[in-house]
Every structure is written in C-alpha cells, then in structure tokens.
Specification:
single chain, elongated, 12 helices, D-isomer_DH_CS, alpha/beta, 5-stranded parallel beta sheet, binds 2-oxoglutaric acid, 7-stranded parallel beta sheet, binds 1,4-dihydronicotinamide adenine dinucleotide, 15% strand, 312 residues
C-alpha cells in the first residue's frame, strides 16, 4: 500500500499508517507535484491546504480513500470523489473543544483586553478607568451553525451565564445538545440583531459564502463583535472592513481569511481586529486526536472495514 500524506500530521497518526504501508510524507507536498505522487497511491491524507480537485482524483487510478485531518471539506471535490467511488473520511468533532476555547479566548480578549493592558503597564501607564471593561455574564452569544463546535461553545457559554441564540436551518442532529446547553433557536436576523458576540460555525458552501456581508453586518449592534473560525469565504472581507472602520460593529476576531496566508489586507490597519493564522483547531490535544482518528479510519477503509467517519 502507498499512502501519501501531503500536510502536517502528528506522529501518532503517522505510526498507524506506517504499520499498514509505505508512507510518503512531506508537510509541504501540497505545494509540489502531488499528482505525480498520486499516480500509484492507495490513500491520500490532507489537511486544509491541499486542493483535492477532480483532475487530481482522476490522476489517481488506485486511490481507495481520502483522509482529511480536520473537519472543513471545502478543499476537496466531494462530488468527484463520490463519482469515483472514493470514500472521504474526516476528523469529526476532534478539534471542536479547541475551537470553542479559541472563541472564548477571543470573547475574553474583547471583554478584558489583558494584552493591551499589559503593554500599557509596561509602558508606564496605570489607567484603571480606561481598562474598566465588561463581563461576559448576561451577554448574548449568537451562534451561526449549531453543530459540533457550536454546541460545545454553547456548553461553555452556559457556564459563563451567557444567553445563547442559535441559527441553524438543519438543526435535527444537534437538537438535543442545543436544548441541553440552553440554545434558543431563532432566525438569522434575530440572532444577528440581538447578539453581543456573533460566532460563525458553518461549513463553506454555496449557501454560506458571503453570508456575512454589508446587509447582514448592518443588522448587528454597534457594540457587537464578530468571531470567524469557520472559513474566510463566509465573510465578505471588504464589507467587514467598512463596517469596522465606520463603527457599525465594535470588533472582529478572524482565524480564517479568504486568502491564506493573506497578502497585505486593509484589515491589518485596523486596531479593532484580532487576526490569527488558522489556529483555532491547532492544539496538541486536538491534533493527536485528529491524527489518530483519521489514520485509524483510513486503515479501516484500506482493509475493507466500515468507517463511521465517512462523509455522507
Ligand atoms: N479554524 C479552525 O481551525 C477550524 C475551523 N472549522 C470550520 O468550522 C466549521 C464547522 O465545524 P463543525 O461545527 O465541526 O461542523 P458541523 O458539521 O458539526 O456543524 C456545522 C453546522 O452548520 C450548520 N449549517 C450548514 N449550513 C448552514 C447555513 N447555511 N446556515 C446556518 N447553519 C448551517 C449545519 O446544520 C451544522 O449543524 C467547519 O466546516 C470548518 O470549516 C472546523 C474546525 C477547526
Ligand atoms: O488544522 C487544520 O489544519 C485546519 C483545521 C480546520 O480548519 C478544520 O478542521 O476544518
């Protein structure tokens, strides 16, 4: 068996794959001639930077499985994989807690500004009035998408005494979790207009691309913050820039951008923006879980066994 891993994988997963076959692993393979490697490959394992196109799938006649070391599947041509009869397995729920904790870090950063206050004190300042900020207690968190991440975030927000609103037109699989964690389901307009923090947890697809745009941003309160850990394409960045610059909303934390890594962006010039390099799911714990899960599921498929992580 030849297993090609084109992006960063943790040792724990690599070990499992190596027991089954010959692993070709290079974390920068996604930038190179991947199609050549795939000509005789039985499995391909990727993160989010490898674009698994129809052409690439067609250039891999022996391919039996695609493993995704993560959750978002917008970088894989799922229709082409389905047509070729190649199952795609992914790390469902493996990084959800990490992303939920990242959102808390962002909300608390906006609420308390500890880094800024530290710089202020180190610079000789002691302005206690200026750094009198706000509690999360009693504030409203608006979830756009109440799946694995959204419900875990709700669980944590409930412990903070936040009110939680959720918008998700496909709710049934997560209905019980929403009830348990106090999520009141509402329409998009209600969630956007009432939330103090709006957090995005939807996949990127035709229905969610540019979901946050001039019109939807205008529904948010001027005091509200937007947090995007979903995908850059869910937010129209030009409209967001204008909303932030004009004070239509108070701030944004963006872990994901339309172009990653970004070239220069006007967002860099704004003080009310937190920017991180797509790290919400990147913790040791989540990555060990992700690598183990995906490696195990890839091996199951290669052995002809059923997998519970196949994308439907
Ligand atoms: N920044 C990071 O490191 C990470 C980012 N992600 C992103 O977060 C996304 C969500 O992840 P999970 O919660 O694990 O996925 P999930 O599949 O468990 O939940 C997604 C939810 O979005 C809902 N949804 C779909 N279309 C919608 C729409 N048009 N409007 C409102 N809701 C809609 C679905 O019904 C589902 O409940 C992933 O697709 C991925 O793009 C995921 C993990 C890490
Ligand atoms: O860990 C990564 O490389 C990306 C995580 C992510 O965005 C996902 O799981 O969808």
């Amino acid at each position: 068996m030849k297993i090609v891993v084109s992006e960063l994988i943790w040792e724990e997963g690599l070990q499992i794959l190596s027991e089954l076959g010959n692993v070709v692993y290079d974390a920068s393979l996604w930038k190179q001639d991947l199609a050549r490697e795939l000509a005789d490959a039985d499995a391909l394992v990727v993160r989010n930077q490898t674009r698994v196109t129809r052409e690439m799938i067609q250039a891999a006649p022996r391919l039996k499985v695609i493993g995704r070391l993560g959750v978002g599947l917008d970088n894989i041509d799922l229709a082409a994989a389905r047509e070729a009869g190649i199952p795609v397995v992914y790390a469902r729920n493996a990084n959800a807690i990490s992303v939920a904790e990242y959102v808390f870090a962002a909300m608390l950063t906006f609420a308390r500004r500890l880094e800024e206050a530290t710089a202020h004190v180190k610079g000789g300042g002691w302005n206690r009035r200026f750094y009198t900020r706000m509690e999360l207690y009693g504030k409203t968190l608006g979830l756009i998408g109440t799946g694995e991440i959204g419900t875990r975030l709700a669980h944590r927000a409930q412990a903070f005494g936040m009110k939680i609103l959720g918008y998700d037109p496909f709710i049934p699989p997560y209905e019980v979790a929403c009830t348990e964690f106090g999520v009141q389901l509402a329409d998009l307009k209600t969630v956007l207009s009432q939330a103090d923090f709006v957090s995005l947890h939807v996949p990127l697809n035709n229905a969610t691309r540019n979901l946050i745009n001039r019109e939807t941003l205008s529904l948010m309160k001027p005091s509200a913050y937007l947090i995007n850990t979903a995908r850059g394409g869910v937010v129209n960045e030009e409209d967001l820039y204008n909303a932030l610059r004009e004070g239509k909303i108070s701030g944004a934390a963006l872990d994901v951008l339309a172009q990653e890594p970004p070239q220069d962006s006007p967002l860099f010039k704004l003080n009310n923006v937190i920017l991180t390099p797509h790290i919400a799911g990147l913790t040791e714990e989540a990555q060990v879980k992700t690598s183990l899960l995906v490696a195990q599921e890839v091996v199951k498929i290669l052995r002809g066994e059923p997998s519970s992580c196949v994308v439907r």
